Amino acid sequence: MDIEAFRKAGHEVVDKICDYYASLEQRPVGAQVKPGFLREAVPDEAPEKGEEWSVISKDYDEIILPGITHWQAPGFMAYFPANATFEGCLADLHAAAISNPAFNWSCSPSVTELEILVLDWIAKALHLSPAFLSTSEVGGGIILGSASEVAVTVMVAARERALAMLSDARGAEVPADGGARPEATVQETGTQHKDLDDEEQWGKWRGDATGRLVAYGTTQTHSIGSKACLILGLAFRALDVKAEDGYALRGDVLRKALEEDTAKGRVPFMLIGTFGTTSSGAVDNLKEIGQVAKDYPMLWLHCDAAYAGVAMSLPEVREASTDLAAINECFDSYSTNMHKWGLVQFDCSPLFVRDRGALTRALTVTPEYLRTKHGDAGSVLDLRNMQISLGRRFRSLKVWFVLRSFGLEGFRAHLRNGISLAQGFAEQLREHGKPFAIVAPPRYALVVFRLDPTGAGGQSEELDALNRRFWEAIQEYSKEIQLTQTVLPEVGFCIRLVVGAPSTRQQHIDMAWRILQECADKTLKA
Amino acid sequence: MDIEAFRKAGHEVVDKICDYYASLEQRPVGAQVKPGFLREAVPDEAPEKGEEWSVISKDYDEIILPGITHWQAPGFMAYFPANATFEGCLADLHAAAISNPAFNWSCSPSVTELEILVLDWIAKALHLSPAFLSTSEVGGGIILGSASEVAVTVMVAARERALAMLSDARGAEVPADGGARPEATVQETGTQHKDLDDEEQWGKWRGDATGRLVAYGTTQTHSIGSKACLILGLAFRALDVKAEDGYALRGDVLRKALEEDTAKGRVPFMLIGTFGTTSSGAVDNLKEIGQVAKDYPMLWLHCDAAYAGVAMSLPEVREASTDLAAINECFDSYSTNMHKWGLVQFDCSPLFVRDRGALTRALTVTPEYLRTKHGDAGSVLDLRNMQISLGRRFRSLKVWFVLRSFGLEGFRAHLRNGISLAQGFAEQLREHGKPFAIVAPPRYALVVFRLDPTGAGGQSEELDALNRRFWEAIQEYSKEIQLTQTVLPEVGFCIRLVVGAPSTRQQHIDMAWRILQECADKTLKA
Prior knowledge:
homodimer; alpha/beta; Aspartate Aminotransferase, domain 2; 2 domains; seven-stranded mixed sheet; four-stranded antiparallel sheet; 19 helices; 11 strands; globular
């Protein structure tokens, strides 16, 4: 495709996207296809001769689009939102055109520098402490691809920090830096392990120490926590939370666990505190956690605010709790997904840390072919040293476009729209009462409910069975709405409704409410 | 921005990209900016009120673009290429518009299904064994974001497979699956670790066994290998390679290392064999490696073909060696980056494995809120269970657009153009002779050379110093060309030139050659 062919095709695709958004409401929200549908439509090998763009483009409409679940549709209220905006589209298009995997500053200075700047914009919008800004010179951020990637990355830094502290406590028999080699080149890394005998004792010590590390979360922590432990081969302990606490981790529960484990020779090295859990939007008691952690200096506190973190841009959310103050005072890292409710296309997971060095000490490897004058001089940040991957996309551009075009005013209006629609829906449920029951305090734009025809509450096989049938009935309406199910302690099986697509209006909440009433009737009659 | 505003802005951006490509040759290849340049141009917080698109768009041209290093420019011959194509731009634009983090099949069936299909297209184009195709039902692929992510992901699978084998050998005292819990829900994961006492013995065994694992590569293996070990806290042993072997790992060197380590109670669990190293394009002797590995069933063989893998689509490359046969017969996994020389925008790193189960056993965690009817029934693949992250971008769309629009014919023509230009450049260097010297066999589109005015060869401080000055001189021409430096065993400091941008023609090689001669003159006169 040459420049003029691209001009024509590009204009057509832009027009198609306009048509797509104009017709979003008429499309089935959930894809109405069966597993394997695409294999029937797509040849089993690449064509030998190039094909015309018009043919490819037609296939996109006729083969691909019917198999897409429309997360931007107003009836999409499942999982968490994955906002797309036109500004984000334009940024991704620009980024694709100048494609460069900016692993070093010099690979594309704008990519590194804009990322650092917009991270400061986000941190300020959320009222994070100046300690998390690049201007602190010590703390700062990086945009990663997902909260999962954030969890693994932070856990590596926390592990290395804990091992370094343990090693310091043990004395000079082991490397004082705990095994992190900030400036190691590939050759040095090679040498270092080449004769393992010399390091045999050190390796055994490290293996044993690593085996004693324990990361903490709750039964409500997102599976990214236990998955990070699975990946790194570390122990994860999920603490119990109670319905009466709104599923928040309390300080006394944490303290008891830390004391028990420490008494057994284990080393608590990381805690994931959640600001807005997936199942119910619960917020752990970050203040109490921060207090307890003061007695455990090795415990890295990470706040996973993947979904709800963006809501800290609202004064009414910040002022309603002590969570922000606790994060700013006590937490080592904080992450929220701009690609959920934050108007920025997937993927965009900003991570803020109080000590950038904790990441770079754990993650830097610099072979000769990655060295640059500026990198050697330390006059720039090479962001690859704060992440797993070498290459990186130009993700900050979409943040820049979105925040400038919406302004913080528009950003907050979008969040408030979601919250107000969801709280209105919760009010409707509450007023209607039986057979519906809200099962957790509605948080942000998330409402969790179930059928409880007698209002008995609690957890029972009968209620679970009833609500699984209710869930089956809801899924029959997948063309109109998409919701998700979950399981809550002391409750059991229940249904989540999350408002967040920019296209969702009151009329779509009304539609969801009508469908839920129909499904409830059907389920109860059956 | 509403639909009509996007239509206007979208058309403008498409036209801008056309202008950008038309003017690519006139732009400085390397960004001519100083560290911190952007901080002066960008306000230090997000605007309160939304700004006009015209203002934002103007800033993109005036503030961002000057800080971009143009990897698509014909004079970009550094690192490895990061191809962008118009087809890739259109795919990324569509993907941004329908943005969805397709972690489950149901989240967007087309995203999962197209990925599986185009991976088969790629595997067939590269003549990989049917064992690596989805149609094998056992093997198959996934598109990850980078070769680094591939290395970590595969290493987790290799570690778990090795631990399971060790555990089987040890008997029933430890879980037979080696600790992997394919179907664990978050709650179960919680329970499992809740009372660590019950698993104390198991944990100690696992910790000790993990500490004995060793991964292998060579001094030429990309730093992604040692970095994966750094992340996972595992030992990496970099084996020596010789210039006389073209920097390829030989079977006898590997066997000696495996015997030594096994004798010491260590457990070799993974080897990264490279098809096209970063420093010199070297290819390890995969046939000899495969033979040796037959005696070490626990050794996972991964082939990192990040750069050169796409060249296996050329019969002349496939037929020139026994490497493909060795991969197909002996290797457990294979990865190449379509986003380097493969015409697909960053990021796109296909990973092929012989046993998908090795990934899913190591990486599956399924809380209730991620369960789906089809996932529970096992009638679909949920690709999140083969990777670190939960969310995933619609990366297969760009592969589909590119391979269809270019056809395999066009794909191969692009590769042959790069190879032919690079080999022509190597020929020029060879014919010219002193003060230039080619220091490793030119491979694919990569030529590694240095100044060696006396033709003495070998490694010396004098030659290193001279070539570091030569490198300084070359960097003065960053507006015209971009190259990269490296260090090779038995050689020392040298310069890499890689052809790969679709825009590079003979005239640009001629320009590079003129600049290199000028730089050589200056360096030698100084």
